[in-house]
Write a structure and sequence with these properties.
This protein is an alpha/beta fold. It is built from 13 helices and 22 strands. Strand 4 and strand 5 form a beta hairpin.
Length: 401
Amino acid sequence: MVHTELMKDIYYVGYVDWEVRNFHGYSTHRGSSYNAYIVKGEKNVLIDTVKRPFFNYFLENIKNIINPEKIDYLIVNHVEMDHSGSFPLIIKYLPNAQIIASKKGVEILRDHFHKEVDDEVFNNIRAVKEGDTLDVGNVKKFTFVPIPMIHWPDSMVSFMTDENGKNILFSNDAFGQHLATSSRWDDENDFDVIMEEAVKYYANILLHLSKLISSVLPKVGSLPIDIICPSHGVCWRKHVGDIVERYKKWSAGEIDNKTAIIVYDTMWGSTEIIAKALYKELQYRGIKVKRYKLTNADYSDVITEVMLSKAIIVGSPTLNNGMYPTVAEYVCYQKGLKPMNKIGLAFGSYGWGGGAVKEIIKELEASKIDILEESIEIKFVPKPEDLNFKKIIDKLIEKMV
Ligand code: FEO
């Protein structure tokens, strides 16, 4: 692993993780990266650290650029362990560095590392608030903007203007993507791939915070940003406007109204017969529809498609008077992420008592999804006449557009 000079005096010292396929439950089909940066100047700054197992690579990257003793500041934008896991280890190599974090960041650093780090260290951290600045010489200046609850209470972004007047936003999790790549810039990678990972990242990490993001984006959008360096995936220089615009759309819940997703599982095939019949009817009506069977799909991919769809149609067979376990798990995941601006429909099959459809409705209602009054519940194996869904799809489409 070697360091990368991103531009004059700004270096990448993070770790690209080609192996990770599960990031706290989020499927990372293309790996990830834990980005950290060094800004050199009259004063030298290290921004963030990496997940602890990769500390040695991180340290080696730093040493390739600078003697760690010459680092004057360590900025901790966010305490989650993928960015601060190496904090207790790296500070031993930075005897001359002032640590900077948001006020909540100081608290949460202490909450995490009280066993390994002396209290003295926490007492000496500079806690910054919105608009506080740090002059690092060579006309470089940092401005700090805490963004509480996007997505942790401590989260902060650091905005730097360099001597050429270029404005760089070190955005931490915001605008990130779980993507392993040896090319650090957006324009050196396939645009569709980085956007695919950016939307998946938004859906799985940030979706439930959309209202808050909507309120903060104008503040971020008003900054004259030339470059965004997030803490996962590639840095943005060519497509800054594109990613900020996408965040505006995603956080406002803007979607194509003629889109639907069918998410279901099946035990002996009856619920799947219903899912396929619903798919056929929607497709026939010109709705762009996707169908995911939960046995073969993972929640992080499905929730991404849910975020981009207007109608969410959820189906389950009844098992032990309730939902099939994969469906129960999925709706629980979805409830936490609070997809906005959706129309819901529940369907399923049963043998005698039923119960799954009722539970799906309860869960969708708890997610504040506007549910169609009608639902579909079919006993044992559907007969051809059970599969005429014209009327119910009429009602669904009426609410979608
Ligand atoms: Fe909130 Fe990438 O950690």
